[in-house]
Design a protein that fits this description.
Structural class: alpha+beta
Largest sheet: 5 strands, antiparallel
CATH class of the largest domain: Alpha Beta
Distance between the termini: 51 Å
CATH topology of the largest domain: Alpha-Beta Plaits
Low-confidence stretches: 126-146
Order of helices and strands: HEEHHHEEEHHHEHHEEHEH
Strand order of the largest sheet: 2-1-5-4-3
């Protein structure tokens, strides 16, 4: 790269409204080697405060975050990852850092650096600052209330899933690549609640939700709870056949939970119906058509006797 090209790319980074950070992947401590002005503005830290340090300092003592573990695992595997972390500026104020981290390789295929793109997701997600502040004392869990909007399962909300799907849809249009969407319903949940009570029903929803999310383990996969026992998920890069097999696995794994349901007309255990749809996005299309198609397939799965993927 010529000096002129290097200067151009540096000016491009420095003019970016998003925070950009570059860390050394060869050093096990992953020290920062560069941050742009957007990152300084986002965090309140000057570049001199950050160079040579690990960005975990932005989490302060707030280390017990699931997203942090997922980020660390993805970096350990050399994969890209998108997470939402509760971070703290230099003045101590909390903000929600929506970050995408990607590995950078040299000519020999070795990962030399990780590049992170960071932005404050609080305003976009309409997070109540008071709620975020209260969470520091343990009074609330903002990841459940404001971000995932689901204290029951810890999954994302449908609006947040749709935001992420729109972004991945645009990426899939450029590449191009397929995206798969899953619409999932717990069969006969109303009868289960009537038999065992709401608390038992909530426990069953939690177990099923974690089971379903566990079938989609890549950092790019997203699972959300819509309401009651209805879930939605999407997975970039899966063909229709691959997605169908994942849907079948979801149904099988839920059966294997063997949650007793004596009033179910399907079988004596809790089961799910799964509608699967996959497509490679075309120009001038949006993901609503794929979401609608997955709901149509879910309806067919129910009509065909439930406890299956279609």
């Amino acid at each position: 790269m010529s000096g002129m090209e290097a200067d151009f790319y540096r000016r491009l980074l420095e003019s970016s409204p998003e925070g950009v950070a570059l860390v050394d992947a060869q050093n096990p401590e992953h020290p920062v080697i560069y941050v742009n002005p957007g990152f300084e503005s986002l965090t309140g830290y000057a570049a001199a405060d950050l160079i040579g340090r690990n960005l975990r300092l932005l989490q302060g003592e707030d280390r017990d975050q699931d997203a942090r573990h997922r980020l660390r695992e993805a970096m350990g595997r050399g994969e890209s990852c998108r997470v939402l972390l509760r971070n703290y500026r230099k003045d101590g104020t909390v903000f929600w850092n929506e970050m995408t981290v990607s590995p950078l390789w040299d000519a020999e295929g070795r990962i030399t650096h990780f590049a992170g793109h960071h932005r404050d997701a609080g305003e976009r997600l309409r997070i109540d600052p008071k709620l975020a502040k209260d969470s520091l004392s343990g009074a609330h869990q903002p990841t459940a209330v404001a971000i995932r909007d689901d204290r029951l399962t810890g999954l994302f909300t449908l609006p947040y899933l749709q935001e992420l799907l729109k972004r991945d849809w645009a990426i899939a249009q450029r590449e191009p690549r397929s995206i798969a969407v899953f619409a999932i319903d717990i069969d006969a949940l109303d009868l289960y609640n009537a038999t065992f009570g709401r608390a038992a029903g909530d426990s069953a929803i939690r177990r099923v939700a974690h089971c379903v999310a566990g079938c989609l383990r890549r950092s790019s996969d997203v699972t959300a709870r819509i309401d009651g026992g209805s879930l939605m998920a999407f997975a970039p890069g899966l063909s229709a056949d691959q997605a169908f097999r994942v849907g079948q696995t979801m149904a099988e794994r839920v059966r294997e939970l063997r949650i007793h349901h004596p009033r179910s007309a399907v079988l004596r255990y809790i089961s799910i119906s799964v509608g699967v749809a996959a497509a490679t996005p075309e120009k001038d299309t949006d993901p609503s058509m794929l979401l609608e198609k997955s709901q149509q397939q879910l309806k067919l799965a129910k009509q065909a006797g439930r406890n299956q993927a279609i």
